[in-house]
Amino acid sequence: MKAAPYRLLSIISIFAVLRHSGRCGLYLLCCMVSVNLLGQTTEALSIPTAAQAWLSTTFKIDLAQRWRLALSAQARSDDDQRHLVDRLFLETILRYDLPKGFVLRAGYRYGQRPERNPQHRFWSNASYTPDLGKHWILKLTAQWQTDIVAQRPNQSALRPQIDLAYRHRKKSKLVPEINFDLFYRLDYRYQTVERYRIGGGLSYPIHKRGDLSVKYMWQRSLNIDIPQIDHIISVGYDLDIGPKLKKENKNDKQKEETQPNTQQ
What we know:
There is one protein chain. This protein has three helices and eleven strands; from the N terminus they run H-H-E-E-E-E-E-E-E-E-E-E-E-H. It has helices spanning 3-18, 22-43, 250-258, and strands at 49-62, 67-77, 87-97, 102-112, 119-128, 136-149, 155-166, 175-185, 193-207, 210-221, 229-240. It has an eleven-stranded mixed beta barrel with strand order 1-2-3-4-5-6-7-8-9-10-11. It is globular, with a radius of gyration of 19 Å.
């Protein structure tokens, strides 16, 4: 875990240099992150590894000028060969846009695994998207969440997240992005970093209201008896439904359209 903050700082410093190099710079940064993750995997051959596949569909609708509701369904498959789908999630998200790039969200997620009790997750977060120009999109997020499962203690966590994307519609519709996600447990007995994710991917607008995204995430668990590394491939489809409401502020509208999404 000691190396993780240094890798994150190195990514941020490289971004400062590559900010003016556009899409090629972010592609290069994604390659450097991939090589970094490959090096970590090589160093950690003694740690058990697993593969996961995530499929998700999200429907979004504008309720008012600054209010948006999203409904998401997700299926996840692990290395377990007994079930085709190991986890199913249904999630409801309510979003409110504040001025100057600030956004508030709250959500509830219902999860079900075969032969296990259902999981309930309540969460809320606040994010900030600074103005970096027309093409660069940087999102900083702080999320609080708590998971409730019958006959088990509740698990709460704080999740700082960083997302960086580059969009230039005139040159290409592909949008590359990278992200970092840290899970810090807030339980009264285990106040420690539980795991972190580093990943990247591409999104592409299939039509005016629908985006298709493909991502890879490298996840490592920490401070447990048997740590594990997960290789996660995620495919998601986002669709806007209902009438598209006009934004009061053009800058807020641009940030709404260009903010990258993060798998939860």
